Amino acid sequence: MCVRTCDGYFFPMSNAASLGDFERDQKNCNSSCPGTEMQVFYTRGIGDDSADMTSSATGRPYSELPTAYLYKQPETLRPPACGCNAAQNFEIIAGNPPSPEQTEADVETKPLIPAPVAKADQGADPETLANVEGELDREAIKRLAVKPSPTTLPPPGRRKVRVVGPTFLPDPEAATDLQAPAPKAAP
């Protein structure tokens, strides 16, 4: 189990991990909740209670953690940096360390609510609204209407790409007509 030590919240990491997998699981825990202290806890059996989990780092049971089950108490306020808000640029998830100029306070102060946008005119033509939204105006049409310049192919001996085409197909006279019945041999 991956345990967030600031409020005792835990979630599964690997259900069949061995001692050699704890280092990998610890890295996965840290990347799940960047900027928050995380610990890997394990249980001996499948039916064990969460209070019986043992820390892979300290060997102490989960129940001795000062913040055990704190997340279940709604009246208790969590510290501002206690959360699993991954960086928006995915650097931590990709395995890169967090940038030094980004602090925990920076992560918490960034709003996750999108900025409101102006509503479109309800009486406007839908096609006109689509053109405005797609930035399609006279200048864009002029740019799109420019004909591309024709390209010339190099001579067949200097081509870097093999050209497959009509020269490899059989002559139309020798081609098989799939709709005509096959000729029958004379007896």
Q: What portion of the residues fall into strands of 2 or more residues?
A: 5-15%
**Overall form:** extended
State Rg.
33 Å
Structural class computed from helices and strand pairing: alpha+beta
Low-confidence stretches: none
Question: Care to count the β-strands?
Answer: 4
* Mean pLDDT metric: 75
Largest sheet, spatial ordering of strands: 2-1-3-4
User: The biggest beta sheet, please?
Assistant: 4 strands, antiparallel
Q: State the end-to-end CA separation.
A: 83 Å
Q: Give the H and E element order.
A: EEHEEHHH
Helix content: 10-25%
Number of helices, counting only DSSP H or I runs of 4 residues or more: 4
Brief overview, please?
The protein has helices at residues 22-32, 104-109, 126-133, 138-145, and strands at residues 2-4, 10-11, 38-42, 54-55. It has 187 residues and is α+β, with helices and mostly antiparallel strands. The longest helix has 11 residues, at 22-32.
